[in-house]
Amino acid sequence: MILCADTGGTSQEIGAVRGVLGSILTMIEGGATHIGVATDHVIESFRNDLYPGYKTGEGVDAALFSQFPILEKALQSMGVLVWPMVKFEADDALASAAAKAAKDKRVRQVIICTPDKDLSQCVLTSRVVQLDRRREVLRDESGVVAKFGIKPCSIADYLAVVGDTADGYPGISGWGAKAAAAVLSRYPHLEDIPKDWRRWHPSVRRARPLAEALFAAWDDAVLFRTLATLRLDVPVFKSIDDLRWKGPGKDFKRTSEGLKAPNLFKRALARKASLTIQLRSGWPGKQLLGSS
Asked: How far is CA 147 from CA 115, 117, 152, 155, 260, in A?
């Protein structure tokens, strides 16, 4: 199963739309049988109500943003399940879908196709993994530890103290990536960190200033962790069967021609024919989750 997010327009720009459709088709041609795409239909979310400095649509390229609704319709035309997010963010939809899919015994592996560090918190052993398609890196739980120095369960705490400039919150003064990894590898969550720096593990350097900075800004740290924590309660699908790609819709030929990419329709049609043959022969399929 693949879950995808595009957060990224006639003289209308459509280049990004063609690119995403091509990427999704490549995944399907590569063996993905179940796929879903999450989009930020609007940039703002419930997090903007929690923190005034949280990211907004300001600065987003207008030509890119104008392609979002076109992309959503084109993906649906191609037969792909789409989650256009308004209250929540695309990453929340991916996290919810990954968690739900992982509980289904029929799913062999969930692949989240995005390099976004926020999604690393969703990685679970080798069952839920993260794919960076540009770098061709598939990251399981040990891969998250190798990259960040902490387990996936600590990613939200890590982002809380380090900060995330892309999302608009600064983290805690004096806390960098190395310090966060050193502390959170010993104490997985903020509440586990001793208030008395003298009780910290001796391997942690600069314990006193780190402790003083953290507990002086404790409320901010907890708020930033809330911002960094992806929601698992977004309504995404009722059954894993809802994500099975069954081929393009009847209008996809017209859609691909409108995008000046008729080859997309030919590829989708060819893949549908191939899947029909494979299913008749008893081929079990491949299930992924990803992000574009």
From this structure: 12, 10, 11, 11, 40
All domains of the chain, ordered by start, with CATH?
2-149+231-287 (3.40.50.1010), 152-228 (1.10.150.20)
Distance of CA 179 to the CA centre of its chain: 25
Using DSSP, state whether 261 is helix, strand or coil. coil
- How do strand 128-132 and strand 137-139 relate by DSSP bridges? antiparallel
Q: Supply the DSSP string of 197-232, one letter for each residue.
A: GGGS-TTSTTHHHHHHHHHHTHHHHHHHHHHHSPPS
Locus of tokens 């907890």? 222
Number of C-beta neighbours around residue 125 at 10 A: 11
107 near 287, Cβ under 8 Å?
Answer: yes
Instruction: Convert the pLDDT of each residue in 4-20 to its tens digit.
Output: 655 443 456 889 999 99
Partners of 137 in the β-ladder: 132
Locus of tokens 């400095």: 53
Q: Is the CB of residue 186 less than 8 Å from the CB of residue 203? A: yes
Query: Residue 21 — φ and ψ, nearest 5°?
Result: -60, -40
Report whether 71 contacts 14 (CB < 8 A). no
Rounded to 5 degrees, φ, ψ at 179 are -65, -40
Beta-carbon contacts of 269 under 8 Å, excluding residues fewer than 6 positions away, are 247, 248
> Helices in 135-261 by DSSP H: which ranges?
141-148, 155-162, 177-184, 207-216, 218-228, 252-258
Read off the pLDDT of residues 115-135 as tens digits, 9 standing for 90 and up.
Answer: 899 999 999 999 999 999 888
